[in-house]
Amino acid sequence: MNNLKPFVNNTELWEPFVEEMETRLQSNYKYLAASKDMDQMLRYQGRIAVLREMIELRGYVNGI
């Protein structure tokens, strides 16, 4: 995890990354709401879960 600390603690890198993840998260919520097929819904739910974990990465790496 120590190799990720420079990334998650550098505001110039971290903030744009989080913004991108949040944009992708919102898109996936929209796609999930419009999905009619169960396989598609499960895929979008999985993507949403991964994006949330990426947004929470800073706390995980820093032990918060």
Can you walk me through this structure?
The chain is mainly α and 64 residues long. The protein has one domain. It is built from four helices and no strands. It has helices at 5-8, 11-34, 38-55, 57-62. Helix 2 (11-34) packs antiparallel against helix 3 (38-55). The protein is elongated. It starts with a helix and ends with a helix. The model has no long low-confidence stretch (mean pLDDT 95).
Percent of residues in helical segments? over 70%
Number of helices: 4
Q: What fraction of residues sit in β-strands?
A: under 5%
What about the largest sheet? none
The residue-averaged pLDDT reads 95
Name the shape in a single word.
elongated
What are the segments in which pLDDT stays under 50 over at least 5 consecutive residues?
A: none
N to C succession of SSEs: HHHH
Total count of strands: 0
Radius of gyration: 14 Å
Structural class: mainly alpha
